[in-house]
Amino acid sequence: MPPTPSTADKTARIVSVGSGKGGVGKSVFVANLAAVLAGSGQRVILVDTDLESANLHTLLGLRPPPVSLADFVAQRESELVKLVFDTHIPNLSLIAGTNAHVELPQPGKIDRARLLRALRRLPADWVLLDLSAGARASVLDYFLTADDQILLLDAEPTAVESTYHFLRAAFYRHVKEALLTHAARDLIDVAMDRGNERGIRTPNELLKEISDLDPEEGERFRGALRRFHPRLVVNKVHSAEEIKLGFSVRGVCSKYFGIGVDYLGYVSRDSAVPQSVQQRKPVVLADPRCDASVYLGRIAEKLQTEGRGTATSESAIEGKKRGKSS
Ligand SMILES: Nc1ncnc2c1ncn2[C@@H]1O[C@H](COP(=O)(O)OP(=O)(O)O)[C@@H](O)[C@H]1O
Ligand SMILES: [Mg+2]
Question: Is residue 278 included in any domain, yes or no?
């Protein structure tokens, strides 16, 4: 069973790990991040939200548990805590994404406020979410729900292209959530069409249009813009040039798109990683001295020292629902 919370009012810090494209190393990354944090004495719960190809249990050397997040999504189980299982690693528990006995629920619209409440109430210091690849609405909801939003990419052009696509989709979904009126939200839909006839091309142009329409909505948009701060991690790096990729993506986002993105760090391409997958053990435990383990350790440390990121708070979501004019 999961440990009980040390203090009743302390809420878990939620970290989501997404990527525009599959295969860049999300599941391996999040399992290792979890192992490092758990190794430093923090209580960590990993959540496998990738219901279609759930594999965190395998990466941790576990068989599919009898119940999983699929039961919560399908509303067969309302208490997330009942889906938490111990792993072989002290302080590290798992909510798996698949189980042996039930069919996959059709992914419907996730109730972000309900999910966020449930995730924050989990008895842990950290809750780490492994996401499906891509920018589907349900994936973006998981991504945006977190305090810290990590976007993983590798140096392949397809991954870079998908990263921009993901960032754009996540940004528009995030700001749309913050707005209350139909008219302002409609303007977001217009802006999402790159070739829109109103000529809205950047968040700043959109901000101007929304402020002209309704100054209060403009303020809400401005607040949402400030709170949007995903963090990039470049994985499978094997040259100095590839290390710079994080900086160039950050630069492009700032210059052409007007959104702030941090570069959290990079992890080298390392044959010890696939070997550790074969062993069904995080590489930071299987081979703690290899390059990848060192870089993974640095990222975990940076995340801890930088403190909780900025994300849509539960009260903001609920406030929006209460005050929504539509
Ligand atoms: N730093 C790394 N170096 C070498 N191989 C890696 C690294 N990170 C991940 N991989 C490999 O990439 C593949 C995909 O990883 P996975 O975590 O399943 O990706 P995703 O969850 O993004 O689809 C796996 O075979 C894994 O061993
Ligand atoms: Mg995965």
Answer: yes
Atom of ligand 1 nearest to the CA of 237: 1
Residue 268 placed within a domain:
yes
57 pocket-lining for ligand 1 (C-beta < 6 Å): no
- Residue 303: both structure tokens together: 């995340």
The pLDDT tens digits for 251-298 are: 999 887 788 899 999 999 999 999 999 999 999 999 999 999 999 999
Centre of ligand 1 from the C-alpha of residue 277, in Å: 9
2 lines ligand 1 (CB under 6 A): no
Q: How many domains does the chain have?
A: 1
Distances in Å between the alpha carbon of 323 and those of 144, 171, 189, 221, 319? 20, 22, 21, 16, 6
**CA 120, CA 127: separation in Å to the nearest integer?**
8
Regarding the beta carbon of 269 and ligand 1, being less than 6 Å apart is answered: yes
* Burial class, 187, CB count within 10 angstroms (exposed 0-12 / middle 13-18 / buried 19+): buried
What predicted TM-score, i.e. pTM, was given to this entire model? 0.90
Ligand 1 near 153 CB (within 6 A): no
**Ligand 1 atom with least separation from CA of 152:** 22
CA nearest ligand 1 atom 23, residue: 23
- On whether residue 219 sits in a domain, the answer given is no
Which CATH number characterizes residue 140's domain? 3.40.50.300
pLDDT in tens, 181-190: 999 999 999 9
Does residue 165 lie in a domain region?
A: no
Ligand 1 lined by 26 (C-beta under 6 Å): yes
Please calculate the CA angle 66-71-72 and round it to the nearest 5 degrees.
130
The domain of 127 spans: 13-154+229-323
